[in-house]
Structures
1.
Amino acid sequence: MIDLHSHVLAGLDDGPAQVGGSIAMARVAAEEGTRRLVATPHVNETFHPQPSEIAIAVAALNVQLARSGIALDVVAGAELALTRLVELEDAVGEGYALGGGPWLLVESPYSPEAGDFDRVLVELARRGDRIVLAHPERCPTFQRDPARLRKLSDAGVLNQVTADSLGGRFGIEVRRFALTLLRDDLVHVIASDGHDHHNRPPRIAQALDAVAREVGGLDARWQWLTEAMPAAILAGDELPAAPAQVTRGTLRRFLRRR
């Protein structure tokens, strides 16, 4: 598997404070079957890591992992707040791209008063920016109006759902919405959003066990969600077509219940 979203680098954001925590996270990921982990520290009003800092930290961590015998490749990226993304010059923004490819990971806002941020994302996508939207299932705006997320997907924005959301860590409503998005082909990547090795570890595979019986055809889509799509995103390759879904129409039922 390829984990496209993690906070594994020590001291750059709200991930581990020391490199020992980074190594412990990497060990958890490798033991679960993750072979590549993208380090995506927050870039927002609180945390301001520069692309060069991230690259240096990634290189140093890979050296430590090799010495520790942990078979995991860490690559650079970032999780950008939309407010920071629109402020960055193009050359700087490109330095935060996932794995040095063309795609940027942008954080979905948690505030119910986020306004028309999705309109800004559509405009960025139309000008050519390639955006992966982190954990939209936790965004109050999309929970209230899922059709707005559909419009973003129609504009070319990809959606990354967090494995812990499917497992119920963030509550029943978030889990239910994440399942709805899966059933309606609005999930393109499943990632861990791991922050440490014990409370929010970089685990992905457990999500399959948590929801396989509830989402028809998920077994067939799992490789696409956790390997094929992340690999294409990192390489900047043409995105592979999704396997056919078994169950559709759930988004319309979700909307009728709101």
2.
Amino acid sequence: MIIGIGTDIVEIERISSLLDKRGESFARRILSKIEMKEFVDQMHPAVYLSKRWAAKEAIAKALGTGFTQGVCFSEMTVGHTDLGQPQVHLHGKTLALSESRHITDWSISISDEKHYAIAFVVAESR
């Protein structure tokens, strides 16, 4: 059963500008520790960060809470399977909230073009 859906679109230039102004501290606020390890090796860091931003905004919307009740960017990790399919991994209070809403499965799609990054998320229970 679908518990929630979320989508988000972000202008890559907006994230690039924030990254230029605030540097790595901005990235640390958005990314999990695992993602930070990937981030430092990116050829296009603003694109990587934009895609994670859109994904995490969409996850928060699918949870139905946004960034309230302890939900935070750094407790969400967007990973991928060996075939490249994106996956959602939650931690801490964000995971506890997800479990309290009986969310057992996450589906996520992330894409980017020259100017924008977009994500679409479905939260489901079995």
